[in-house]
Structure formats: C-alpha cells, structure tokens
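wait is this the right file?? whatever heres the structure
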C-alpha cells in the first residue's frame, strides 16, 4: 500500500512527543545522493529523554530506523516503512573534561575535529575527513587517513528498541573494519572520545592537509555517497574497480567517478535503483576480473523499486 495511505494511520497511533513527528516526508532532500522515497513517519526528537519516552511507548510492531547525515547511505525509491529518526540540535553538543570529549550523536564529525583542535587535543584530526555525524561514525567504526573511531573511543550511550539506555565500552562494541557490534535497532545518543594534548597550530595544519587531500582525490562537490565498497583484505576497492575497467562506467545518470572509482555519482535525475544497479554491476565485473566479491560500505535502506534505466556504457 502506498505510503500516503499508511502514514496517516501510523502517525495517529504513535505516542505524543516534544519533538516533531511528520508523515510521508521525502528523504531524498536529506541524502548526499539526492535520491530516495519518503519516510512513512519522520521523527526529530527534542532530546534523549524525548527519544527514550517515544521508544518505550511506540508499538513493538513499528519499525524504527536511524537516519544521520546520510553521507554514506542510499535510501531506496520505495521509501522507508515505520518511523525514521533523525537526531538534530538536541544531540549536537560537545563538552570536554580533561582530554575526553563527550559528544552528541548528531554532532558533525568535522565539528568534533574543529572543537578538539581549538582545545589543543591531538588525535581526532582524521574526523575532518569523514562527512558524517558521530552516531553513524560509531555505528560503522568510521575511519580515514589511517585512523578509526576505535583508536580514540572511550564509550557510548545507546538506547535499545525498548528505550532502555546502555553504556557500551570497547569490549561491548567489538569494533572491526567498518563494523561494530551494535544491533540495527540500537540508537547511539552520545559518545566519548579521547585525545591527547598537542599543539594547536600543528593540529590545524594536519586538518588542512586532510581536507586538501580529500578535495583533490574525491568527488565531494557532486551528489555521491562516499566510499561505495569496503576495502577487501590486502587491497583496495578502488584498485579492483579500476582493474576491472569500471572507471567512468555509466548507467543513465549514474557514473563511476573518474576521480575516485570507489565513488558513484548521481549526474542528474538518477533513481536510487539506478545507483544500486550500477553498484551491483561493478561488483559483478570485479568478481569476474579478480574473484573478489566487494562488500557494500554504503548503507542501503528502504523498499527497492526496479531501476528506470538498465543500459550500461563504458
């Protein structure tokens, strides 16, 4: 049944909140790819207490999906059933105690890097190269320029689907490459990261180097979703893609970036299905050329719809 018929029924049976509940909200406007169908219900909680109360009262049969900065996410064209939770201003605080930062899950990674720099803390500069928010960074153990969240992680606070809060340390998180042990239904609300005292000027120079390198090697000023596939052990996804002849490969309005071929670009009016179909074709070609099966790094959510364009050209 179309979302426009489901949404009013669902929103009517959801608990009252202090934040904002909306039905049938297009998600493409929030994603870096600029594609995607609607959220059946879109929830922007006022703060952690508001979110916890909502989860405690929300019917168990209603799916709840967390939606961050959507820089490494593909929302499928059929939209997302249930409630999509987006953490906003009530989750963006950054505080410091000695060399430990307490950060709201909605805070931008770049904002955290800048705050650490201004406080003279070294070790968090790599966050300047990750275009997301802290909740997503913790969920997937985000990393860049030879450092990962696990290198600076102290602990995080999460809410489970029942609205119960848990504090999870490194052992419970069980980080590995672009993975954590967090279950899909758990929502990170805050995280603590540890830096080390350092020289502000040197930290600033390192951040500038990271941002310059990112701008020169990645198509960050185009509608994209960041790194599409995880690096397999012992090699890199971009090299496997390049060796398979996929650099510049196009399907309709979707292109494998010439600048960095582990990025897919929406050149115009592509659908999410077109983007996913080209990604799957790249995976097929890489497997045929190398025997390696690439694993998606981009998180794909929602109801799939058949792609509108199938023709692929080199």
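ok assuming it is, sequence goes like this
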């Amino acid at each position: 049944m179309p979302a426009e018929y489901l949404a009013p029924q669902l929103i009517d049976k959801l608990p009252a909140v202090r934040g904002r509940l909306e039905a049938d909200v297009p998600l493409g406007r929030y994603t870096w790819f600029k594609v995607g169908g609607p959220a059946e219900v879109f929830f922007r909680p006022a703060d952690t207490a508001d979110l916890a109360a909502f989860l405690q009262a929300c019917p168990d049969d209603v799916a709840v999906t967390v939606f961050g900065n959507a820089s490494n996410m593909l929302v499928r064209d059929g939209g997302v059933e249930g409630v999509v939770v987006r953490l906003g201003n009530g989750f963006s605080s950054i505080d410091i105690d000695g060399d430990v930062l307490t950060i709201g899950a909605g805070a931008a990674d770049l904002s955290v890097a800048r705050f650490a720099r201004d406080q003279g803390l070294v070790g968090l500069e790599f966050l300047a190269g990750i275009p997301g928010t802290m909740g997503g960074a913790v969920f997937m153990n985000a990393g860049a320029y030879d450092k990962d969240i696990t290198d600076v992680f102290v602990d995080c606070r999460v809410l489970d689907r029942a609205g119960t809060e848990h504090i999870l340390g490194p052992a419970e998180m069980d980080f590995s490459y672009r993975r954590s042990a967090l279950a899909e239904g758990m929502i990170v609300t805050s995280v603590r990261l540890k830096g080390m005292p350092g020289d502000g000027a040197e930290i600033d120079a390192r951040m500038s180097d990271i941002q310059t390198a990112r701008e020169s090697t990645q198509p960050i000023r185009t509608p994209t979703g960041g790194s599409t596939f995880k690096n397999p052990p012992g090699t890199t996804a971009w090299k496997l893609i390049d060796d398979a002849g996929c650099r510049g490969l196009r399907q309709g309005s979707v292109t494998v970036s010439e600048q960095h071929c582990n990025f897919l670009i929406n050149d115009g009016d592509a659908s999410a299905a077109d983007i996913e179909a080209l990604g799957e074709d790249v995976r097929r070609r890489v497997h045929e050329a190398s025997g390696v099966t690439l694993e998606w790094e981009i998180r794909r959510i929602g109801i799939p719809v058949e792609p509108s364009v199938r023709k692929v050209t080199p």
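The radius of gyration is 20 Å. so i think its the right one actually
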